[in-house]
Structures are given as C-alpha cells and as structure tokens.
Amino acid sequence: MKNKFLLIIFLIIHCGFFAQVRVFGTVKTTSNVPLEGAAVYFNNTMTGTTTNAEGKFSLIVTEKKQQLIISFLGYTTTTYTLEAKNHKQKLLFILVEEENMLDEIVIQKTKYNQYWKHNLETFKREFIGLTTLSKTCKILNPKVLHFNYDASKNILMATAREPLKIEHKGLGYLIIYDLVSFIREGNYVSYLGYTQYRKLKGNKRTEKRWQENRLLTYNGSPFHFYKAAINNQLKEEGFNVAHFKRVFNKNRPSEKDIRAARSLIRSHRKNNQTEKVLKISSKKIDSAYAILKKAKLPKFKDFVYQQNSTHDSIISLKNNSIYLDFKDNLSVVYNREKEEKGYLLRTPFSKKKDANFQHSYIIPSKLPSQLSEKGILVNPLDVIYEGYWSFEKFANSLPLDYSPNK
After folding, report:
1. Does residue 182 sit in the same domain as residue 225?
2. Of 59, 76, 95, which marks where a domain is finished?
3. What does the alpha-carbon distance between residue 126 and residue 190 come to, in Å, rounded to a whole number?
4. Do residues 267 and 232 both lie within one domain?
5. pLDDT tens digits, residue range 254-292?
6. 196: closest CA among 349, 351, 50?
7. Same domain, 268 and 355
8. Count of CB atoms within 10 A of residue 82's CB?
9. Please, what are the averages of pLDDT over each run of 10 residues along the chain (406 residues)?
10. What number of other Cβ atoms are within 10 A of residue 20's Cβ?
11. d(Cα 314, Cα 327) in Å, to the nearest integer?
12. pLDDT value of residue 11
C-alpha cells in the first residue's frame, strides 16, 4: 500500500515538471485547399488558436496527453489525441465537408413557435442549470438549436447546426460549445460536446469578482474531489466520503402495478364523466389509490457500510495511469459550503428547510474509469451524479486548465 501511495506522489510531481512543447500543423480540405479561420483548440481549455491564410497553426502543449479539436463551420469536427512524447513536428488535418441535406431538412423543419420556446427553456434548465451562476450565463445564438420531443416516452433531444456561443458574465468567459448530443429522458440528463473557453474583457473590479467566482465554483466540485482523492487529501480539502449499497425498496409497488393502478383510476373517472355504468368495485379503486400512495416512496434504499473512505478505496493505478475504482457507490459531502437556495427549491412542491452541507452521490456505470493527472474523468459518462452535483450543470463548469493556486 505504501508503494502505491509513493507511485501516486511520483506521478503528481512528475506532472509538475512536464516540459512544454510547441506543435505545428496545417488544416486543409479534401481538395487540398488550406482552410483559413479554422478553430484549433484543446478540448475544455483556454488554449486555442485559428489557422492563418495558409491553413497553418501552432500551439503549446501543456499536458502529456490532450484532446485536440479542429473545427470549421460546414465541415465535420475532427478530434485528435495528442501525446507530447510521441508528437510529430508537423500535423496535417483534412476536414470533410458535412452533408448539407441534413442541415437543410433541419432548417426547414425548425419552427420557432411556442413549442420550440418551451423546449428551449427546458434545454436551458437542464444544460445551463438553475444555480445562481446560471443567471449570468446566456446562449447568444439559441436559434441554431433544433429539438425533437417524444411525448409518449418523455424524451427530449437537441441538435445544433453550428456551435453554441455562450456568454458567461459570472465567470468571465465566452464559451464556444460544439454540441455532439443532448438527451433528457425522464429525470436522467446527459450531454456531450467540445468546449473552447475564451476570456471576456473586464476591469480590475470584474476580474477580481471573476476570480472569486471561479474559486467558489471549483471548491466542492467533482474536479476538486477527484484531485483531492488522487493527492490523498480528502479530509484536508473538506470531503467526507462513504461507500453505500443501493437496493430496491420492497415497500414500493412495482412499475407494472403502478401503471395498472393509474389505468384503472383513469377508466373509473372517465366512466363517471360519461355517466356509464360502473363495473369497477370500490374495493379495487381503494386498492389502486393505496398503490399510488405507496408509489411516492423512493425506488431504492441506500445502506452505508463504510464511513470515512480514503483514497485507497477510491483510486487505483495500472500501467502508470490513474483510475477511479471503487465498490458499489460513493456518498460525497463537502463540509465547507452549504446548498444554494435554488437547490432547496428545485421542485415545485419542495418544502422549506435549512441548507445543509453539499451532498452528492457517484453512481458508476463503468469502472475502473481513467482519470487524468489533474483529476478529470477521461470518459465523463462512466459515472452518474446525483444530489448536489446533478444540480450544478454547465454554468458551474470550469476549463480543465483552471488552477485554484494561480
């Protein structure tokens, strides 16, 4: 166990002494024509540039391994995993023109009516969020969005004809977000995309406010938690972690029984409205209402079996790479910051209560999941967040090259 800890320390120290290198590249079309003005950036960072008249660019690599994004309107976005130790002196990217047929269909299909506006508000709520910072975060070009809503399954999907431009006056960023996918199915929301951060211009006063907001956003975030776990500083950084098992609540009726009860009650009400002869006994109706009452019980019960979990039960190492790796599920409490008022009132029927410390849950869908040296999940969809982290959405995101020590 001691050797494992020393190896983690070595990885972190080694990362700190990584020598920066500059890479050069060219972006062209399939017809060998240089593309001027193509965006070239490291995903989810402040580091980016655009190509010149000859389609050329240069960037400084600050990490051992980063995802390079090359995009130009009307062309398919290209991603490239750049490893500094194996990087070539000159890179060449050929962008393929997108099929215009799909764009034309979407343009003709999109109607900016009340349904589109309603879906836009849902999208902003589920993507931007409802935190205090979300009120300072604005989509500048919302009409590039197209929505598909399946009412029978309660599924909302969103696509964008071009990258979203998001002005974040709370954190001081102009964000270019190339939306790959967005889906909301019931209470489950997932979205993926490529993000480029640019600094907004401000005076000394706004710069100071932005720095304070960025630090406040970082504290208690998944970014902060994973970094603390890697560095074996969970308690020092204010995190209380526990392992728990999740089992189905036996006192709650099955989904099949709940659907049958709802169907029975709807039929009973319809018969009353049309004055049809009732063939449903009062005993069955009472039973159906009893089932719907129990349907309000939580689907699952959580049983904590390990308190004060340490990095040894959360982090593992394999082939000099760091992984998030644990049994069952994690409960994470950040005890240096309390919940926002918006979190307490996030549902229409929320009862008034005092704010507690921020409590989140990590439910894995695939483990082990690789982490970067800075504490970023390589594949974010390997875990599902519940609790406070599910409340903090895109408006509470920071670029990966943000450092609280700067």
Report:
1. no
2. 95
3. 9
4. no
5. 889 998 888 888 887 776 655 554 555 677 888 888 999
6. 50
7. no
8. 20
9. 40 46 90 92 89 92 82 89 72 85 57 93 95 96 93 90 95 95 88 93 94 96 95 96 94 90 82 57 83 88 94 91 94 96 75 86 94 84 92 93 80
10. 9
11. 8
12. 40
What are 75's two structure tokens? 């062309």
Residues 234 and 281 in one domain: no
Distance in angstroms (rounded) separating the CA atoms of residues 87 and 80: 11
AA letter at 397 = S
Range(s) of the domain holding residue 272: 250-297
pLDDT of res. 3: 44
pTM above 0.85, yes or no: no
The full length of the chain comes to 406
Domain count, the chain: 4
Tokens of 188: 């489950």
Q: Of 135, 337, 317, 368, give the one whose Cα is nearest residue 224.
A: 337
Q: Which amino acid is at 361?
A: Y
DSSP labels, 46-94? S-EEE--TTSEEEEEE-SSEEEEEEE-TTB--EEEEEEGGG--SEEEEE
Q: CATH no. for residue 39?
A: 2.60.40.1120
Amino acid at the residue 303: F
Q: Based on the domain organization, do 243 and 354 belong to the same domain?
A: yes
Per the structure block, which two tokens stand in for 210? 């932005």
**123-141: burial string, b at 16+ Cβ within 10 Å, e else:** bbebbbbbbebbeebebee
Report d(CA 184, CA 165) in Å as an integer.
Answer: 21
pLDDT tens for 41-69 read 988 888 889 999 999 999 888 777 788 99
Instruction: Give domain status of residue 5, yes or no.
Output: no
Residue partners of 168: CB distance under 8 A and separation at least 6: 133, 136, 137, 138, 174, 175, 200, 395
Are 167 and 129 in a shared domain? yes
Choose the final residue of a domain: 62, 95, 128: 95
Q: Are residues 106 and 237 in the same domain?
A: no
Residues 147 and 186 in one domain: yes
Report the C-alpha gap between 191 and 181 in whole angstroms.
Answer: 5
